[in-house]
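Example record for the data management plan.
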Amino acid sequence: MSHLEERLEHDLTEIRDQIADLGSKAEQAMDGALRALHTADDNLAFTTILSDLPINRQMRKIDRMCHSFIAVHLPSAGHLRLISSVIRANIILERIGDYAVTIARESVQLGDIPEGHMSVELKSISDDSMSVLSESISAFNTGNAERARETKALAQRVEHDMDGIYAELLDSCEESGAGCSRHTLIYLIIFSQLKRVSDQAKNLAEETIFVETGETKAPKVYQILFLDQDSSCLAPMAQLIARKIYPDIGEYMHAGVKAAGELDRNMMSFMRERGFDLSGVLPAPLNSSREALSEYHVVVGLNQQVQDAVDKVPFRTSALNWQHLEVPSGDDREGWEDLYKNIALQIRELLTLLRGPENL
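Corresponding structural encoding:
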């Protein structure tokens, strides 16, 4: 091995050791913050807060080391993938330290040991978030892509569980009649930080997969529901247009506040003339339960206010309302063409917002 190769391996090993140590510090910070929360240990909380300073210093040190490595060794292929991922992992771990600080500060503000049902939920989500974090750090340090894939699946489960907790906390605010209590607001902040820990751990797992396989994160497939009054015309028309033009960007469904007995025959005739296959397309009633709606990233109301059709829009679901869509009477070909173009344009604008113009 040449001197330059020895220097490269030495510098790589040092960077690996530093990022592993930073991961350990971030994990310890989260563990300390959560123990402080569950035991109302203010001393531990403040120690955790101050321990973020070494994390920040080490993050800056690793950043300098990575950029120096690039300047000195001009890495390519696997080495370049590793260094670029270490730079991103460095930021991820520093942010996790920040989340630990926020949880520690909120535990001091809480002042008491969590009790009752919320204590159980906090313990469950805390344990799951720590498990995701620990697994993702271990997978990154050992270069275990398969373990990283399993960690991503666990992080998605935490995210799903979190939706129900957010809804429960917000419902309790409304039921009290006096708005959110101080404790409820603190719990909302703590749960949001735990969700971010899980999200960042998932990002770290994706970096592991990239380093070891070269695979990049797959583009997100969006779940989109088109909603109208009776599911006979506008919503199924939008679903058909989106499925045909942008099949790989989203999974599209349609529903009506109340389902009609059949599809609008003039709409069917126009769409068939344009080459659309309407087999299996029928009016569908809206399932307005929170559990059902939470499966969608976006619910689009066509001449129908989404907020009027559902009791509550779920925490992670966005509602858009496309108004003033003129439905032609009869077989007005020009009117149907205008409606088609209007809907297609708004679908394009939505998907451009979600995925970016370069990915359409």
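Summary line stored alongside the record: DSSP finds twelve helices and four strands in the chain.
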